[in-house]
Write a structure and sequence with these properties.
The complex is a heterodimer. Chain A is of the alpha/beta class. Chain A folds into two domains: 125 residues, Aspartate Aminotransferase, domain 1, CATH 3.90.1150.10; 248 residues, 3-Layer(aba) Sandwich (Aspartate Aminotransferase, domain 2), CATH 3.40.640. A seven-stranded mixed beta sheet of chain A has the order 2-10-9-8-7-3-4. The longest helix of chain A is centred in the last third of the chain and has 28 residues. By secondary structure, chain B is of the alpha/beta class. Chain B contains 15 helices and 13 strands. Chain B has a seven-stranded mixed beta sheet with strand order 2-10-9-8-7-3-4. Chain B has a two-stranded parallel ribbon with strand order 1-12. A two-stranded antiparallel ribbon of chain B has the order 5-6. In chain B, helix 14 crosses helix 15. The longest helix of chain B has 32 residues. The chains are: A alpha/beta, B alpha/beta. Chains A and B meet through helix 1, helix 3, helix 6, helix 7 and helix 11 of A and helix 2, helix 4, helix 5, helix 7 and helix 10 of B. Bound molecules: pyridoxal-5'-phosphate (2 copies).
Chain lengths: 424, 401
């Protein structure tokens, strides 16, 4: 067949079908940040972004992280390519940190010993979620995932973009500002057998409301019975209790169940964005718990095959910091102390805000049950918009406040604004 | 107990990885590594840190920008300086998004093209081994055509033209802008012009992969010629940029996808689509490497240092090529070796056969790729003679034909 271009030259040069690309919706949170930046009110408060700010509203570098960077700058010369799934040292340190924390997880330690845990460095938490989504799409019998309603804004997009279908399970009761545990259990029981189920390890985003150990027991029993595949997302390890070793109850329990043969496999997506403040450096991991050492090897090789055509290998600045901190006992305890003080501050402002809120017509007790970076206020979209327009208080319209934007200097102003808005 | 993963089989590793492992284990004093495509200094150090990068790191340590989330499009200074390095300016019709190094930028480009209906991707062979996986990963077709003529040891321009003329319109051609991996054989300006003509006439789409900018001529501006020429012809194309090699930032993963569109109304939609793709895969590209690259390209002192660094690297590679040729001539090594000097950059497609390369490892501890690709950066004043004598011996003992 003879192909001849009949278009005039100038059109032929523009044949790319850019016109057909629809404008993708902007990221809501970033939109809020932009509006915040333009606002000239000196009292303005940004409660949108899920990143830590100190008592004067400034982002921080964890002192332990800064020390690790100093060490690296002095020693480091090696910029050459790391492995597709990160360095062995990173994999080992992270695996030990999570699955054998302070030597208190006998089942996890045993799994490590048996070579049943594959750990790969990923592009932070998002990247690990994407890698596991692509992996499940290729190798899992079930092609659907259930996620809590509500959940992190990006979860559904990451999974559906990878070709899985996503559905919600009940999680939160907006009327009563509490966990909706009865419906949660019911909707999990109603899910198709073998579905993938996304679990927030702690500090549920956006509600801040976690399950108690007893509640987890019930949920895990359903998971076992229905052969669901647990996919745990742990983006805020340490933000519930102040200690990463305490916030890991779900993982420890899963390891026991795996050892007992009740749950054969599960996966964990983990990020150092928040608990080391490494946000922009994109440092995280995916761990898959396999049935055997040889299966773990096969999984590892498939992860490499999957990651290589996406970005070849992960960035090392953050992972070197993690390696440095985990290989030096002094730095490690410093980091644990840094994290504890960050979480301590969040809890202090949470309490202060609670105290100053007007409770005559509105029950604020949920604030005290919630943990982590966020408070899920229960305010309506209209109320949030009013806060923004009248008081220059910027938050997402689901009523989620990132409490790290609150500090001693603005907590009174914020409480007053909220009190005014709910009065009506 | 049955597991969801029970049927899973182990997938094979990239052969280059096995070579790297073998090379690492070998502790022979005369060992030479000319395999992996990274720059090595005159003293044979693959961990060479560009002085401008070192200075930028110190600067970052003192004036710490912290580690906060950046923008999903990327760090603003980085994007604008990356554009300048590619285009020599900040054209208003180029949408640029930070990516996870060159690989990530290609992945973004391929995903974007896939989303607007492009399916067939043409790659000239031999080529970088990751293209096939990357193209198939986004669900598109990987189609090969010959780029290199093994007889003449030069670009097989007739075959390239034929592929361009026969590909269905709306096919994508991925071309390496400079320092072709693995052949080291780049298109001449005339050849580029010919190719651009056909692409424009036939409604094909062009993706530039520029992973070695500066390492051919020693000048990043000169090495961007093909892209700037395409721009001045008002073509629409995507340029995928990497700082892995020309700043030695390999594992920091600094790269950029530049989409050139002539309908300004499209620029925002293109950016938004690229950001949406990123958001569902990584959210943000990593900050540290991009911060270094931005500093190096905006601070006048570091800019100057970088220009000198790149020039030094380019000259060293050229010098070592010349020394190698001198040795082959002196040794009267069978075969024609003159092409080593006609090429530039890291790579030299030596014509060494697979058997010869195995023997080079076994008998002389010299590690080249089995396809005969030699990374000339592995050579230096103190080992080039040993290298040439070894090749000479092997070529005599195991003749090519
Ligand atoms: C629940 C949850 N998962 C994952 C992430 C991913 O974060 P990152 O990709 O920055 O590690 C976040 C970030 O906000 C999150 O809230
Ligand atoms: C031709 C070519 N393109 C792209 C790349 C991408 O490299 P990176 O992802 O490390 O920037 C490479 C690296 O070897 C290459 O040789």
């Amino acid at each position: 067949m003879l192909r001849r271009s009949t278009r005039p030259f100038s059109v032929a040069t523009r044949l790319a079908k850019w016109n057909e690309i629809p404008l993708a919706p902007p990221d809501k949170i970033l939109g809020i940040s932009e509006a915040f930046q333009k606002d000239t009110n000196s009292k303005k408060i940004n409660l949108g972004v899920g990143a830590y700010r100190d008592n004067s509203g400034k982002p921080i570098v964890f002192p332990s992280v800064k020390k690790a960077e100093t060490v690296l700058l002095e020693k480091e010369t090696d910029k050459e390519y790391t492995g597709i799934i990160g360095s062995k040292k990173y994999q080992d340190s992270v695996r030990n940190f999570i699955f054998n924390n302070s030597g208190k997880d006998a089942s996890g330690a045993q799994l490590i010993k048996e070579g049943r845990i594959v750990t790969a460095q990923t592009i932070s938490g998002t990247g690990s979620l994407r890698v596991i989504a692509d992996f499940l799409k290729r190798f899992n019998s079930a092609q659907n995932i259930i996620v809590p309603k509500p959940t992190w804004a990006n979860h559904v997009a990451v999974f559906t973009d990878a070709g899985l279908s996503a559905d919600f399970y009940a999680y939160y009761d907006k009327e009563n500002n509490d966990l909706d545990f009865a419906n949660l259990k019911k909707s999990i029981s109603d899910a198709a057998d073998e579905s993938v189920i996304l679990l927030h390890a702690c500090c549920h985003n956006p509600t801040g409301m976690d399950l108690t150990p007893e509640q987890w027991e019930e949920v895990l029993a359903i998971i076992e019975q229905k052969k669901l595949f647990p996919l745990v997302d742990m983006a805020y390890q340490g933000f519930a209790s102040g200690s990463p070793y305490k916030d890991i109850g779900l993982i420890r329990r899963l390891n026991e169940l795996v050892q007992e043969g009740k749950i054969p496999t599960y996966a964990l997506c983990q990020s150092f964005a928040k608990n080391m403040g490494l946000y922009g450096e994109r440092t995280g991991s995916i761990s898959i718990i396999a049935e055997s050492g040889s299966q773990a090897k096969a999984i590892e090789s498939q992860l490499k095959k999957l990651i290589r055509p996406m970005y070849s290998n992960p960035p090392i600045h953050g992972s070197r910091i993690v390696e440095t901190i985990f290989s030096d006992e002094n730095l490690l305890s410093e980091w644990l102390a840094d994290l504890d003080s960050v979480v301590g501050r969040l809890n202090v402002v949470r309490d202060k805000l609670y105290q100053k809120l007007d409770k005559t017509n509105y029950n604020w007790d949920h604030l005290l049950k919630q943990r982590g970076m966020f408070i899920y206020t229960g305010l309506s979209a209209e109320q949030v918009i009013e806060l923004r327009e009248k008081y220059s208080v910027y938050a997402t319209e689901d009523g989620r406040f990132s409490i790290s934007g609150v500090n001693e200097h603005n907590v009174d102003y914020l409480a007053d604004a909220i009190n005014q808005v709910i009065k009506k | 107990m049955p597991s969801v993963f029970s049927g899973l089989e182990e997938s094979s590793v990239d052969p280059i990885i096995n070579l790297m492992i073998a090379c690492k284990k070998d502790d022979h004093p005369n060992k030479i590594d000319v395999s992996v495509g990274v720059y090595q200094s005159e003293s044979g150090d693959p961990h060479y840190v560009f002085p401008c990068v070192r200075a930028a790191k110190e600067h970052l340590m003192e004036k710490d920008p912290g580690h906060c989330y950046t923008l999903m499009t990327g760090i603003a200074d980085y994007l604008s300086s990356a554009q300048k390095t590619i285009f020599g300016a900040n054209p208003s019709n180029v949408a640029s998004v930070q990516a996870v190094a060159g690989s990530g930028s290609l992945h973004l480009a391929f995903s974007l093209l896939k989303s607007i209906g492009y399916k067939d991707f043409y790659i000239g062979t031999p080529s970088w081994s990751n293209y096939r996986g990357m193209i198939e990963h986004v669900g598109c077709n990987y189609i090969e055509y010959p780029y290199y003529n093994y007889e003449t040891r030069s670009v097989d321009i007739e075959a390239v033209k034929k592929a361009l003329n026969e590909a269905p319109s709306k096919s994508v051609f991925v071309l390496q802008a400079v320092c072709h991996n693995p052949t080291g054989c780049d298109l001449s300006h005339d050849q580029w012009s010919l190719i651009f003509d056909i692409i424009q006439q036939r409604g094909l789409f062009l993706v530039f992969d520029i992973a070695y900018q500066g390492l051919s001529s020693g000048d990043v501006n000169k090495d961007a010629w093909a892209i700037r020429e395409a721009y001045s012809r008002k073509m629409e194309f995507i340029a995928c940029q990497s700082y892995s090699k020309n700043l030695g930032l390999y594992s920091e993963r600094a790269g950029c996808t530049h989409v050139c569109t002539w309908d300004l109304a499209n620029q925002n939609t293109v950016t938004s689509k690229l950001v949406a793709i990123s958001r569902n895969e990584v959210s943000f590209a990593p900050a540290f490497g991009a911060r270094i690259a931005a500093l190096v390209q905006t601070d006048p002192r570091l800019q100057q240092m970088w220009a000198e660094d790149v020039l030094r690297v380019g000259s060293r590679l050229q010098d070592v090529r010349k020394q190698a040729l001198d040795w082959f001539v002196k040794l009267q090594t069978p075969g024609d070796w003159s092409h080593i000097l006609e090429l530039a950059g890291l790579f030299w497609f030596s014509g060494i056969t697979q058997l010869q390369s195995e023997k080079l490892i076994e008998e002389y501890h010299i590690y080249a790729l089995s396809n005969g690709r030699v990374n000339v950066a592995g050579l230096n004043n103190s080992n080039v003679e040993y290298f040439c004598r070894s090749v000479d011996a092997i070529v005599r003992k195991f003749p090519s034909n």
